[in-house]
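Quick log. Single chain, no ligands specified.
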Amino acid sequence: MSNLFNKHPNEVGETYFQHLIISWKYSFGLFRLFIVAMVHGVFPFIFKKTVSDKIIEMGDKLKNRN
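-> predicted structure:
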């Protein structure tokens, strides 16, 4: 049973709790970007590149994790 919880974190060189914290950080970051994108939809003159730039940055970090 513990293998279900540890297999993927071990594949990326993390413990279960390290992986949990990192996953939550990405979740909160994506939620923040969701809010920014909603605001941008109403006011298209603000946050013009914020979401796309941050998603590219997050993607680059994820690619370099393992």
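Helices lie at 2-11, 16-42, 50-63.
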